[in-house]
Amino acid sequence: MPRRQKLNAILEMIESSANLEEIGAVMTQLRNLLEVDHVFYRWVDRSDGMSGCSTLPRAWQDRYSEMGYHRVDPVVIGCYKAVHPVDWRDLDWSSRLAAAYRRDALAFGLGNQGFSVPVRGPSGQYAVFSITKTCDDVSWDKFTRQYCRDLILVAHYVNRRALDFEVSFRALPEQPLSMRETEALSLLAEGHSRARAAETLEISEHTLRVYIEGARGKLQAQNTTHAVARAISMGLIAG
C-alpha cells in the first residue's frame, strides 16, 4: 500500500479509536511508517508527568515524572505561546537545567531531532503532539519539509479524538480575571519585564507579583509563562 494510503488509514484508525490506548497503538504504526524514533501526544496543562499517549519507553515516562521535567522542558515552555509547529532546534536549550534534561532524554533514546505541533481544546486545554528522530540536520530538514503538513493534520486528529476520552480536565474557574490581573498579564505578553510592567501600571513590583499570582491561581497555571499562554489561548488577552 502506498505511503499516502497508509497515512489516510492511520487517520481513520485515530477517528475510530475507542480509548487512549488504541490511539497509542496507532502512534506505533505512524512511527513505523515514518521511520522515526518516537511519536507522542501529551497534555501540558498538567503537572503529573507524561499524560496522554505515546511510543515512549515507560522508563523515560517514569523518569520524566520523577524529575519534574515538565518544569524545565524547552518543548513544554516553547509551545505555550506557539501557534505554528516548532522545530526543537529553534528552542532555547541554553540553561543548565535544559541542557541536563536534553542529555538525559538522549540517554533514553528520544532522538536528537524533534518536531512539535501545539494544539488546543475548546475549554482551554493545551497539548503538544511531537515526533523525534535520530539523524543529521540535512536529513531532518528534508523530512520536516516532506511531512510537515501531514504531521499537523495527524496532531489535530489525535487531539480531537483524545479530548473525547479525557474526562479529568478541570474546567477553568468561572471567576474572571480582574482588570489589574488582565493588565499585568497583557504587559508581560507584550514582552515587558516585571519592573517595566510595574512602572507602567504605577504600582510596586510586589503588588504586581500579587496580581500575577492571582491570575495564575484562577488560570490553574504552572508558572507565569503558562498563565500568559492560557490567557492568550482563551482570548482573555491579546497574543
From TrEMBL:
SMART domains reported for this sequence: HTH_LUXR
Q: Which UniProt keywords apply?
A: DNA-binding, Transcription, Transcription regulation
The protein's GO terms of the molecular function aspect are:
DNA binding
HTH luxR-type domain location? 170-235
Q: List the InterPro entries hit by this protein, alphabetically.
A: Sig_transdc_resp-reg_C-effctor, TF_LuxR_autoind-bd_dom, TF_LuxR_autoind-bd_dom_sf, Tscrpt_reg_LuxR_C, WH-like_DNA-bd_sf
Q: Which PROSITE patterns match?
A: HTH_LUXR_2
A Gene Ontology biological process term: regulation of DNA-templated transcription
- Protein's name in the database: Autoinducer binding domain-containing protein
